[in-house]
Structure formats: structure tokens, C-alpha cells
Amino acid sequence: MTFADLALILFNGMAWAAATFLVAAGLTLIFGILHILNFAHGGFFMIGAYIAFTLLQLAGGGGVPLWLYLVVALASGMAVAVLGVLADLAIFRRLRGVEDAYVLIATYALLLVCDGAVKLIWGLNFMSVPTPDELGGAVFLGDAIMPEFALFVVACGLLAFIGLDLLMERTTFGKLIWAVAMDSWMAKLLGIRVGRVLMITVVIAFGLAGLAGGLLAANQSLSPSLAGVFLLQAFGVIIVGGMGSIRGAAIAAVMLGLIESFGTVFLPDYPGILFFVALAAVLLIRPQGLMGRAQVA
After folding, report:
1. Any residues with CB less than 8 A from the CB of 219 and at least 6 apart, and which?
2. What is the radius of gyration, based on Cα positions, of the chain?
3. Residue 61's pLDDT band (boundaries 50, 70, 90)?
4. Hey, how many other C-beta atoms are within 10 angstroms of the C-beta on 128?
5. Above 70 in pLDDT, residue 294?
6. What's the CA gap between 48 and 72, in Å, rounded?
7. Which one of 59, 79, 210, 257 has the fewest CB atoms closer than 10 angstroms to its CB?
8. Residue 50: inside a domain, yes or no?
């Protein structure tokens, strides 16, 4: 194996990790605080991507500057965050304290609603989003070729991790979130407005799903099946990292991304098999995940 081959494998693993973490971040947050395994997360990721597609079509439909692409991604995140408010009022606050089986059924039903809404509004045809003008090329590291858009995704994943980690570990609101996650009853006795904290958490989680959809739209073929493209990998990341742990999800994304990348090269006839082997191994050795917290396990 040459240096270029190894560099390309590592780069592809990091690009996979960054893209998957962008999707998994909101999923981790909503589970860690509300203890709700949200199957509909992939649906709102898909809606974010379609909203970005529509906004870019209104902007001309061709190649767009990077700043406009970022603005559209942020707008997609904000639009899905508004849907998060509606979902919290109509569904999520009714699921607090409900048995897990009913939660899974409710969020899966919400995923079906998202799927139906996308088919109704945008149809069944495949659609595509152009890559921003500044990210259409590639960077050469010796003989290794690294697409600029993939480098952009890696940078976005890193910034998302830093921002979420600072929010959860360094801010007053992050401490409120952890207090509610650990013991909502005691937090309420201490004067914390638990309902408001939970609603804001849902809005942030949905906004992250929409933002991920907008950022990754140019990397996907948009279709109603998009909801499931990253959802399985995202669930794998939060399981391996530890339910509710942002840092654990980031570490798991990098680990699984590298495993997936090496597996693609060395076991091309068995795509994804090393991902599932690694997932099973972690569950057997450390069921709570790499950085799982006992109170949210």
C-alpha cells in the first residue's frame, strides 16, 4: 500500500465520520436529554436537504457561491427548527414518561409522515444540488486526490463538534440541560423551567438535523429514500459512542468511519460488514458505549 492509498483511506474515513456526525449530533442530543430514540430524525434531515434544494432553485438553480450555500443551509436548519417546535407541542412532550415501545411507534409514524410530505411536495424524482463554485475542485497531497467539498464537510463536522461541546460543557444552558437530563424532578424543585429547557433542546436537535441536510445536500441524490441513507450509521455512532454523549459520538464517528473506509478497500465484496462487526463488538464488550453515562444508558 502506497502513501497515497493510505492517505486516501484515512481521508475518506474522516469525511464519512464528519458527515455522519453532522446527522448524529441532533439525534444524540434529543436522546440524551429526553430519552427518546427519535426514528423521525432522518426524515427531518431529508426535509432540510429538500428545503435547501428549493431555496437554491429560487436563487438560480446553477452553481452558487459558498456564502450563499451556507446561508441556505442555515435557513434550512431554522425552518426545520420551527418544525421541531410543532413536533414538540404535538408529539414529543406527550411521549415523556411513556413506555419505550410507544415512543418508537410514535417516532416511526412521524418518519412516515415526513416521507409522505416529501413525496407530496417534491415528488418521487431524483434531484440534485450543485456543489458551490469554490468547492468544485480538489486538493492534491502527493498522488492522493481530496475533493474540496469533502474537505468542507470535514470542517463542518469539526465545527459542529466544537460548538456542541462548548454548549454542553462550558455554558450555563448546557449545565441546565445536564441537570434536566440527570433528574428532571429535582431540577424542577430547584426552579429550573424544565419544560422550556426540553423544548429548546428539541428545537436545537431538529435545527441540527435541518442544518446537516442543507450542508450535505450537494453530496447526495435527493429522493424520498434519503431519510434512511445516514440514519443507520447515525444510530451506530450514538450506540458506540454512548447514548447522549457528544464526545462519545464524535470519537465513535471517527472510529467507525476509519473502519468503514478500510473495509471498503480490503473487503469490497462485503460492503459495510466491518461497520456491523465493530458495532457488535462494542455492544458485547461495553454495552453502555465508549463514553456512555449511567444516567442515560
Report:
1. 19, 149, 153
2. 19
3. low
4. 11
5. no
6. 10
7. 59
8. yes
